[in-house]
């Protein structure tokens, strides 16, 4: 389409986003290695596209006929560029006040950073946990769990459908104290008012993963979980 484009705003926004995220993580992370890892996950195309969806920027885009035909409105690259341009505009509208942009982005960053920190904590706990998960009601063996984290995959699907974040509800928590019997945790997922099958395991992280796997299976049978 003819008219103005957002390339200069994207250039500016890209730099502002990088600085905001670096400054935010500086207060959250313990060392340079963790800073680098977390920043890479926050500035990636998928995360910035998710931020754009959270702000419903896809509804504000003006696209040419070719882009409309290819459904570019929901393309990750298009959404990433839109978010960068938007933050560039926020920076300029605030008279280049970095702190105001930080406050604007904080509601987007906080839940994502907490999610990443929780994933890291769960991964560390799982590395120290020799117990094996209990198979849930759908009899999906652990070997069929996707290499891609099903929790992230389900969250991306839900946000792109504008359903918000999936709700994980602990529906059962049996702490069995008898010898040789492990605790059990059961989670079910609610998305847009719909409840999906439960996942049960001997730790909360695996129970949530199983529940997310079952939800993905029910949402679309064509999703390949085995890799």
TrEMBL record:
The keyword RNA-binding applies. CDD domains: DSRM_RNAse_III_family, RIBOc. Keywords: Endonuclease, Hydrolase, Nuclease, RNA-binding. One of its GO terms (biological process) is RNA processing. InterPro entries: dsRBD_dom, RNase_III_dom, RNase_III_sf. GO terms for molecular function: double-stranded RNA binding; ribonuclease III activity. Residues 149-221 form the DRBM domain. PROSITE patterns: DS_RBD, RNASE_3_1, RNASE_3_2. Pfam families: dsrm (PF00035), Ribonucleas_3_3 (PF14622). Residues 1-95 form the RNase III domain. It comes from the Eukaryota. Transmembrane segments: none annotated. The keyword RNA-binding applies. This is 7071_t:CDS:1.
